[in-house]
Design goal:
Blueprint: H1 2-10, E1 14-16, E2 19-21, E3 25-33, E4 40-46, E5 52-56, E6 63-68, E7 74-83, E8 88-96, E9 102-106, E10 108-112, E11 117-120, E12 131-136, H2 149-169
Parallel strand pairs: 2-12
Antiparallel strand pairs: 1-3, 3-8, 4-7, 4-10, 5-8, 6-7, 9-12, 10-11
């Protein structure tokens, strides 16, 4: 039963990272699993207001259509391809974060070969929740960040390595 609940909980369209820094540029990745017995053929995302998307990564086997508004601002994207059952795809894009703390909500629409469409737009805890990212001052779990203990650990390892090397190369004292 635990495995069934875990697999259901993971069967969501999710944008990573879950936390990012105010005003920074971030590489976001939309991860979409196929939890049905038929292929996923279309994935659409709408970008939250306040985020300025600047570019997209190429994904083999997937074509992208960039959606813009009348001012030519990127407001969404549609990828078409074939995602077989029990597989997932990661769709990368880069965006400039808002200049103030915010929660970005990512509406995603997943369409299957036989026609059903899942709307990942619900509230947190719902059957089809929208993914969200917290934009905060000094995010520490964003890729490339060096906050908290991650700044200290490499230096501590270097100091321990030098001390160990010194002890290993030390000449044994003569006893007489």
């Amino acid at each position: 039963m635990t495995l069934a609940v875990t697999s259901i909980a993971l069967a969501h369209a999710v944008v990573y990272p879950k936390t990012s820094k105010i005003g920074g540029y971030e590489k976001y990745v939309l991860r979409v699993p196929n939890e049905k017995a038929t292929a996923t053929t279309r994935i659409e995302i709408r970008f939250p207001a306040g985020l300025r998307v600047t570019s997209f990564g190429d994904v083999p086997g997937w074509q992208i259509e960039v959606l813009t508004d009348s001012a030519k601002r990127i407001v969404g994207a549609v990828w078409t391809g074939t995602l077989p059952p029990q597989r997932f795809v990661e769709l990368p894009f880069v965006g400039a974060n808002p200049k103030a703390a915010a929660t970005l909500v990512w509406p995603v629409y997943q369409t299957y070969a036989e026609g059903p469409r899942v709307e990942w737009t619900g509230a947190e805890g719902s059957k089809t929740p929208a993914s969200s990212t917290s934009i905060v001052d000094g995010a520490t779990d964003a890729p490339g960040s060096s906050g908290g203990a991650t700044r200290f650990v490499p230096w501590a390892a270097l100091v321990l390595a030098v001390i160990s090397l010194g002890l290993a190369l030390r000449r044994p004292e003569a006893r007489g």
